[in-house]
């Protein structure tokens, strides 16, 4: 039997843990360990876990290392064959764990697999962050089976098949621990947002595969740490997308896709400006300036990634989902 642990990263999320841990404890087999890796919380999370959830193992970190650094440190210390990375604002459903483990057991080339992710608030709709498996368009815009840009689909069973994809959602992803470490873990320079897409891209370049198993279902609240339109989140998303493209794109695609993506970011910034969203405009500018400032270290990171690349990733859409979206194609079935 493989050794499996559910790993929940927490930073000042005491109330989320109180709300969502009961479902994880209820729906997870007793032989599967449940670990909360605490990113230096100051809200009493650790004391609450000890008093109210004695089954849960607490792994304390000495500071807030973000999503990327927190999970890197946790998985380096955890003894398991498979680790299921689970956000603290996710409610599980009965039988959620077993299909993910079975998928990893069945295919040794599979680095990670995600479940079907529905919205906690609108339970018959897919959730924005992952839906039913992630893909990437030619300019680096992520989209999903069940979510294109701002439109999420109602789940009517239209995507209830196991499928390989480009990326798995960090809200819930079951990883082969040795693959996670072999690929180098999450890029800690990302801190948070898009680090799982970057990791999945590298995993594919190194010969692994990524998948979604809809037989497993979870419900994600979303926005548990930062609201979707928070300036900090906008900054991280714009900055990290540029970092990800620069590191991972093959040279033949890099110098066409990256300038086009930067131009699209500029158009987004102008839209924010015309809407009077000055803070959002400033975050796009800040993200791009940050990208330029760190080009020297990014060149080193790119060389390291490209030196280890042995495969062509699956699941990159060779068109623009932005163009297709505004032409009226707003469901995954219209794209692929």
What would you note in describing this structure?
The mean pLDDT is 95. This protein has helices at 14-27, 45-52, 66-77, 97-106, 177-182, 195-205, 231-248, 251-274, 278-293, 295-307, 321-326, 332-335, and strands at residues 4-10, 33-38, 57-60, 82-86, 90-92, 110-119, 134-136, 142-144, 147-148, 151-152, 163-165, 172-176, 209-220. With 336 residues, it is of the alpha/beta class. Helix 7 runs antiparallel to helix 8 (251-274), helix 7 (231-248) runs parallel beside helix 9 (278-293) and helix 8 (251-274) runs antiparallel to helix 9.
Topology:
Layout lengths: L3 E7 L3 H14 L5 E6 L6 H8 L4 E4 L5 H12 L4 E5 L3 E3 L4 H10 L3 E10 L14 E3 L5 E3 L2 E2 L2 E2 L10 E3 L6 E5 H6 L12 H11 L3 E12 L10 H18 L2 H24 L3 H16 L1 H13 L13 H6 L5 H4 L1
Parallel strand pairs: 1-2, 1-4, 2-3, 6-13
Antiparallel strand pairs: 4-12, 5-13, 6-12, 7-8, 9-10, 11-13
Helix pairs in contact: 7-8, 7-9, 7-10, 8-9
Q: What amount of the residues lies in strands? A: 15-25%
What's the helical proportion of residues?
40-55%
Helix/strand-derived category reads alpha/beta
Pattern of helices and strands: EHEHEHEEHEEEEEEEHHEHHHHHH
Give the strand tally.
13
Task: Name the overall outline.
Answer: globular
What's the pLDDT, averaged over the residues? Answer: 95
Number of helices: 12
Query: What is the rounded Rg?
Result: 19 Å
Cα distance, first to last residue?
A: 38 Å
Low-confidence stretches: none
Q: What summary fits the major beta sheet?
A: 9 strands, mixed
């Amino acid at each position: 039997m493989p050794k499996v642990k559910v790993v929940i990263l927490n930073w000042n999320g005491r109330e989320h843990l109180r709300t969502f841990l009961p479902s994880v404890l209820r729906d997870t087999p007793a032989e599967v360990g449940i670990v909360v890796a605490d990113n230096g919380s100051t809200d009493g999370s650790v004391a609450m876990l000890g008093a109210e959830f004695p089954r849960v193992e607490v792994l304390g970190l000495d500071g807030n290392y973000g999503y990327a650094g927190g999970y890197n440190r946790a998985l380096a210390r955890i003894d398991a064959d498979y680790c299921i990375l689970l956000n603290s604002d996710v409610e599980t459903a009965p039988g959620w764990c077993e299909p993910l483990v079975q998928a990893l057991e069945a295919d040794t080339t599979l680095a990670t697999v995600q479940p079907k992710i529905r919205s906690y608030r609108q339970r018959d709709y897919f959730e924005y962050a992952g839906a039913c498996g992630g893909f990437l368009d030619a300019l680096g815009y992520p989209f999903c089976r069940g979510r294109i840009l701002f439109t999420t689909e109602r789940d009517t069973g239209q995507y209830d098949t196991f499928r390989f994809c480009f990326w798995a959602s960090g809200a819930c992803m079951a990883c082969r621990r040795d693959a996670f470490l072999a690929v180098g873990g999450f890029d800690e320079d990302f801190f948070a947002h898009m680090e799982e897409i970057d990791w999945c891209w590298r995993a594919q370049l190194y010969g692994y595969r990524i998948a979604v198993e809809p037989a497993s279902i979870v419900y994600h609240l979303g926005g548990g740490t930062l609201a979707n339109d928070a300036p900090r989140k906008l900054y991280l998303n714009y900055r990290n997308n540029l970092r990800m493209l620069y590191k991972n794109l093959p040279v033949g695609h890099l110098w066409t896709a990256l300038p086009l993506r930067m131009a699209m970011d500029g158009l987004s910034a102008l839209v924010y400006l015309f809407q009077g969203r000055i803070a959002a405009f400033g975050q796009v500018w800040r993200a791009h300036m940050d990208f330029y400032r760190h080009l020297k270290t990014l060149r080193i990171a790119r060389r390291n990634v490209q030196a280890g690349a042995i495969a062509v990733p699956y699941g990159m859409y060779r068109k623009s989902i932005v163009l297709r979206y505004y032409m009226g194609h707003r469901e995954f079935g219209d794209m692929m």
